[in-house]
Amino acid sequence: MTNLFESTKKLFTGNLKSDVSDEKHLNELMRITREELLRIERNYKEVTDEDLLDYFMYCRLAAQQKYNYLIKQYRAHGLETDSDRQECV
Asked: Is the pTM of this model over 0.70?
């Protein structure tokens, strides 16, 4: 069984196969990215320094793009998405 890093590498190089273990890793990547988005959002709301605000805005945009990409990959591999898995806008 490959680890999460290897699955991420496969995903971003286009070598992810649609089997059960890869589906689990894709689900794990989506979960981690959702948590990352929540963490960034909390930090963004708490900071007052303009430089940090810019930093967290950049991080939030990057994490949103990553999450949207993961959703597209999930669908491209013929996997059904739950109604609570919504693209970030």
From this structure: no
What is the tens place of the pLDDT at every residue in 13-68? 666 555 556 778 888 888 999 999 999 999 999 999 999 999 999 999 999 999 99
Tokens, residue 53: 């605000």
- The alpha-helical segments, DSSP class H, found in 1-89 are 4-13, 20-46, 50-76
Half-sphere exposure (CA, 13 Å, Cβ side) for 54? 3
Contacts 24+ apart (CB under 8 A), 68-75: 70/11, 70/26, 70/29, 70/30, 70/33, 71/30, 73/11, 73/16, 73/26, 74/26, 74/30
